[in-house]
Design goal:
single chain; 487 residues; alpha/beta; Aldehyde Dehydrogenase, Chain A, domain 1; Aldehyde Dehydrogenase, Chain A, domain 2; 2 domains; 6-stranded mixed beta sheet; globular; binds 1,4-dihydronicotinamide adenine dinucleotide; binds magnesium ion
């Protein structure tokens, strides 16, 4: 196993980086080199118990929930400063762990991580709560009390950024956290939690436990009776398991699950822009994005032209070493995930569709793949591939486009490309999804609700939606005595 020269990433519990109680470790693999690059503490129930106890103590007895949002905000901004100062180390950790191009981790994921902490720090400090006008002689107002210990279970596709999307609002609203990163991409979480300590965030406020999901640290965390909230991003099937575990303790859950984003391109669209956004929507991060626009439906008069232009642009993307600045597509995140995506590419090649461009590459890479002539009931259309594979299909009417878009069990997001204002609003209302992007993709406003319909999730996060989830909203009703009663 280990030659002893690899770097080690431990849990971070109560402000200290540490090994597992039983000393066990696992290796994390660089999917470009297809070789282990670091060792990681392999957590189990005992480590989860220790981390939850530390978070519990920090919440029940420590200053964090009590110091007020201005002081918490100051510490969270200092945390964001440190994240920016350590951008290169954080970016290298994610790129080595899961193969995402360094330009993405350095240029987008790390800045967005810092921005998440800054946004929620300010949001918690600046949002108003309700005072409800009462004509019954009462003063009625709401308070948002911190919920307690938050379990955050993160996926591997945006390791640092997705962790921050959960940790930032949880901390800003005065909670303490136990984060379990994905076993495919653990390194940046250890770095993140150590920076929190360096920023002066009290010990026990942000803990990290590494390990696997089912039968591992993930399961132990979701079943723990001392956890007050569970926020999870990952596979829909895992969301069902976590939901069941949470139900036994009546723990509220927020689930951000899979997607099969429909991308509707109308004949009146600006085709240059539609092609450019469609490429970004499916090939960014090698398609390992829950929001990926993996089904493109094109109005028939422009179908052929769109398909040709999209395929040409796809074939021009540069696949290569994730550490090179010129690389646009890296390997898939792990061998297991590569095998999954490969099975879909082989299904397309076996005659389930016509592969216009792409196919398998070297190692664990898949070239940007465009498939046409696929029947709507194909697994290529119905299931989340989570790789650089897109299906392109023509449609003949707006109504048909909506039916096709709404035709899977998922409902995370959809894109609409049209220059017709009326149609843009009509479709925005008709699409059964959590987010509609019109003539763009992936543009986020952190105040907006984020989440999915159907198999894509339960609940919303972002802005006040995060506040609702990470606090216990409380009603205070106070009697105002009438003047006579005082006499
Ligand atoms: P997964 O859902 O198994 O893993 C995500 C996280 O959940 C990891 O931290 C994992 O350790 C944890 N986990 C797994 N089982 C658990 C359990 N029973 N209790 C508690 N925690 C548990 O996702 P996986 O297997 O890594 O990816 C498989 C597929 O899921 C992908 O191919 C993709 O289709 C989808 N996915 C979607 C993501 C999204 O952003 N919506 C992110 C990652 C995966
Ligand atoms: Mg899994």
């Amino acid at each position: 196993m280990s030659d002893g020269t690899h770097r080690f990433f431990g849990h971070v519990i109560d402000g200290e980086e540490c090994a597992s109680a039983d000393g066990r470790r696992f290796e994390t693999v660089d999917p470009w080199r297809r070789a282990p690059w670091a060792e990681v503490a392999l957590g189990g129930a005992a480590d989860v118990d220790r981390a939850v106890a530390a978070a519990r103590r920090a919440f029940d007895e420590g200053p964090w929930p009590r110091m007020g949002s201005a002081e918490r905000g100051r510490l969270l901004h200092r945390f964001a400063d440190l994240i920016e100062a350590h951008a290169e180390e954080l970016a290298q950790a994610d790129t080595t762990d899961m193969g995402k191009p360094i330009t993405e981790t350095r240029g987008k994921d790390v800045p967005r991580t810092a921005a998440n902490f800054r946004f929620f720090a300010d949001h918690a400090r600046l949002t108003a709560a309700e005072a409800l006008p009462s004509d019954t002689g009462h003063h009625v107002y709401t308070r948002y009390e911190p919920a307690g210990v938050v379990a955050a279970i993160a996926p591997w596709n945006f390791p640092l950024m997705m962790a921050s999307w959960k940790v930032a609002p949880a901390l800003a609203w005065g909670n303490t956290v136990v984060l379990k990163p994905a076993e495919q991409s653990p390194a940046s979480a250890t770095l993140l939690a150590k920076l929190a300590v360096e920023a002066g965030i009290p010990a026990g406020v942000l803990n990290v436990v590494h390990g696997f999901g089912g039968d591992g640290a993930g399961q132990a965390l979701t079943e723990h009776p001392d956890v007050d909230r569970i926020t999870f991003t990952g596979e829909s099937a895992t969301g069902r398991v976590i939901s069941a575990a949470a139900a036994r303790n009546l723990t509220p859950v927020s689930l951000e699950l899979g997607g099969k984003g429909a991308n509707l391109v109308f004949a009146d669209a600006d085709l240059d822009s539609a092609v450019e956004w469609s490429i970004k929507a499916i090939f960014t991060n090698a398609g390992q994005v829950c929001l990926a626009g993996s089904r493109i439906y094109v109005e028939r008069p422009v179908y052929q032209e769109f398909l040709e232009r999209l395929s040409k642009a796809a074939a021009a993307l540069r696949l290569g070493a994730p550490g090179e600045e010129s690389t646009q597509i890296g390997p898939l995140s792990s061998q297991e995930h590569y095998e999954k995506v490969r099975s879909y590419v082989e299904l397309a090649e076996s005659g389930e569709g016509r592969v216009v461009t792409g196919g398998l590459g070297d190692g664990w890479t898949v070239r940007p793949t465009v498939v046409a002539d696929v029947p709507e009931d194909s697994r290529l259309v119905r299931e989340e591939i989570f790789g650089p594979v897109v299906v392109v299909t023509p449609f003949d009417s707006e109504r048909e486009a909506v039916e096709l878009a709404n035709g899977t069990p998922f409902g995370l997001n959809a894109m609409v490309f049209t220059e017709n204002l009326h149609r843009a609003h009509r479709l925005s209302a008709a699409l059964d999804v959590g987010t509609v992007w019109v003539n763009c993709f992936f543009v986020r406003d952190l105040r907006a609700p984020f989440g999915g319909v159907g198999d894509s999730g339960v609940g919303r996060e972002g802005g006040t939606y995060s506040r609702e989830f990470f606090t216990e909203p409380k009603a205070v009703v106070m009697r105002i005595a009438a003047a006579e009663a005082q006499a």
